[in-house]
Amino acid sequence: MKIQKQQLEDLNKSGISDHKTKFNFLTQSLSKDGTDVENIINKLAEFQVAIPSWALGAGGTRFGRFSYGGEPASLEQKIEDIGLIHSLTQTAGAVSLHIPWDVPNDYQAIKELAALNKIKFDAVNSNTFQDQKDQKETYKYGSLSNTSVAVREQAIAHNKEVIEIGNKLGSKSLTVWLADGASFPGQNNFQTALTHTQNSLIDIYEDMPADWKMFIEYKPYEPYFYSTVIQDWGTSLMLANGCGERAYTLVDLGHHLPNTNIEQIVSILMLKGKLGGFHFNDSKYGDDDITVGSIKPYALFLIFNELVYGMQNNPQNPELGWMIDASHNLKDPLEDLIQSLEAIQEAYAKALLIDQNALRAAQEAHDVTRCQEILQEAYRTDVRPLVREARLKTGGVINPIAAYRKLEVREQLIKERGKNTIATGL
Ligand SMILES: [Mn+2]
């Protein structure tokens, strides 16, 4: 299925006058306060988030998986699905591949298909948390941290292969997330596990092309319950520093213990020039991987405040690799991604509205009340007209979910692919 430009224009006709009224009203009131609305629209229009190749199908839990009709059965179909979301939102202009779930058969054809859909290849992800068919060594007791040289070598070789695949497609970064850890006290020697991990990562790092970056992801628990080798941002930063200047920490919103101050982590990493990648999702209890902004939109806004501050004030930090890392088993996965993209754009727009000069002055005057007022003034602004305007400007639709339903995208996909297809992934 491919959405035609004319269809998008037709969809926008009915909502345009209502949109213009709201947009003009908001622009007027923001401009009066000295906000550069055009600058915000441009920033929103430029902002692109990668979609992971495994998020196009319905997610499972450890208790089961209920497939959604019309799921993409091949990498080609996954790229087409991202193309559909991108044509509606103009915000999903990249794909992040998980290897070995999505190894291309024909590289040239995949590159052409991606270009046709205006999709770039973002970070590639290695997978040493599962055993694959015909694999010699098992990752049951760890991969890059394993006490066995043979297992470590196999895991290192896999990461190098992922770099090679990514390189053929035009990716420029490798994301490493390790499931390595222990479920019981005494099972692992912490120092040995970390030392092996550092040495394995250095081996992989040295194999990367000179213009590549490595993102090291951390997580406090799961799939193991007593300890993980890369448990927090401090450990990730230590490992990144041990590898070299093109290794960075990756922050995944769901990979923190409850109530962790993620915005502070983001801020400090950017000050040190070491925040490389960012994974969006939301959660109530643990790494729940639910729709961005569905549970804690204010926390997301505070995180975006620090991201915006860092992007404006920390030239030592590289441009970030943004990805949605969410998947669950209830909603249509494409509608879920559209909602996540919308939440990301809204939080970004609100953070861009914060009067940074006024905030600094209030901080210096120790006017705590005013500091809160400044943040919440931005947060309480309904920025949806700005997000819609950015979408219109780049050729998207005013209301992507409504458009998705009106075009009967899922029904079309089921017609094309059948009811019982299952996407690769978790
Ligand atoms: Mn992640």
Automatic annotation (TrEMBL):
GO MF term set: isomerase activity; metal ion binding
Gene3D superfamilies xrefs: Divalent-metal-dependent TIM barrel enzymes (3.20.20.150)
Protein's name in the database: L-rhamnose isomerase/sugar isomerase
UniProt keyword Isomerase present: yes
Keywords assigned by UniProt, alphabetized: Isomerase, Manganese, Metal-binding
InterPro entries: L-rhamnose_isomerase, Xyl_isomerase-like_sf
